[in-house]
Amino acid sequence: MSLAPRHLLPASLLLAAWITQANADQQPAALAVIDSPFLLFDLSEHLSADVQLADLDGDGDLDVALANGRHWAEPDRVYLNNGRGRLLEARALGDALRPTYMLALADLDRDGDTDIVAVYDDIPARIWLNDGHANFSGGAQIGQSGGDSRSALLRDLDGDGNPDLVLARRGDPDLLYLGDGQGGFGEARQLGDTDGASTGVASADFDADGHLDLAFARRDQQPALILFGAADAARRFQRQSELPDSMGDNRKILAADINGDGKADLVLGRIGAANAVFWGKGDGTFAAGPSFGSSDGRTYSLAVADLDQDGDLDLIEGNDEQRNWIYLNLGEDRFERVALGEEEADSYGIAVGELSGDEQLDVVVANSGAANQVFLLRPAKTQ
After folding, report:
1. pTM of the prediction?
2. Residue 296 pairs with which residues in a beta bridge?
3. 219 φ, ψ (degrees, to nearest 5)
4. 348-366 pLDDT, tens per residue?
5. Phi and psi (nearest 5°) for 229?
6. Cα–Cα distances in angstroms (integers) from residue 108 to residues 113, 178, 182, in the given order
7. Angstrom distance (rounded) from CA 58 to CA 66
8. Which of 146, 81, 139 is nearest to 115 (CA)?
C-alpha cells in the first residue's frame, strides 16, 4: 500500500482572505480529526470515484457504497460497518467489473431498504435492488443511459413520492428519468444543452415556488447551469439560467443554506481556481459570496454538514494531489480550516455521516489510486 508523501501545502498557494489562517498541524478548538490506519479500507488501491453512505444491511448503522473504476473496469463494493466506524466486511456489487463513477442510493422499489443505481463511463447505468440485508440483485440496464456519465442525483422531482434519476454527463446531454416506484424508470428526457460538460448535479428549490430545481457543475470553461422545476410536466426544467461569474473548470456543486437565511446557496468545487460560494436570493438568482481553498486548487469532491454541531453548515473539500480540508463556518462569511488527514491523494469522493455510534458526524474519503479512509471527528479537548 502506497500513500502520497506527507508534506504541507507550499507556502506559495494563496488562500482567500476570508479564511482564518491556521497551522496545518493544529486543530481548531472546536474539532479534532482521528486519523488511524485501522480506519483504512479497500487497500488494493482501486481507482475509486465516489463514496455514499446508508444503512444497507438494516442493522441501524451507516454502511459504505464504494464506486471504483472511473474509466477502467474495476469492482464496486459495499462495506458493512461494525458500528464503530470500522469496515470489516466487503461485498461485491455484481460479478462483472465496470468503469463506475458513482453508486447513487435511494429506495427505488419502496420496500423500506436502500437500493443502488450504478453510474458508469460510456456504458448504460444499472439498477441493483437490495433485499434489506445488503444483498443486491438485478443489474438491469437503464435505457438510453450510455454515455460519459460522471455523477447522478436520486430525488423525487415530480412530487409523486418516487425517486427520480438525473444523470450528469460530460460531452453528452444530461438526462432525467422519472421513477416508477417499482424499482425502474421511465423513458429518458434530455435536460439543458446538447453539448454540456456536466460532472456534478445538485437540487433545491432556488426560486421558492414549491418545486425542486437543478444545478449542474460543468467543466471545459462552461458556466454552471440552473434548470427550474415547475408543476406542469411539459414546462418542468425548460426554463434555465447560467450562474453568473461561474465560467471555468467546475467539477462539483452543492446546494445548501450555508449562511442560515433560509435560502438555498450554491457551492462550486473548481480546478485551477479557488472554490466559490454563491448566496441564493430566494428568487432563482444568486450573488457572489466568499471563496475558499487555494487559488490554484484542484477540488474533485465536496461535502457539507454541521461537523462541529454549532447549528450552521461547514464545508469539506477533497483535492487532487493536494491536502484535504474542513472549513468550519464561523458566520459572517468567515471559515476556519482544519486539515483532514495528512496525505495528498486524488480524493474523488467525500461522504459525511455518523459511523461510530457516538452521535458525532464522521467523514469518509474515496481516493483514486490510494487506500480509502474513514476519519472520526471529535470535539477537541480544551485546556
Report:
1. 0.92
2. none
3. -95, -165
4. 999 999 999 999 999 999 9
5. -75, 170
6. 9, 11, 6
7. 18
8. 139
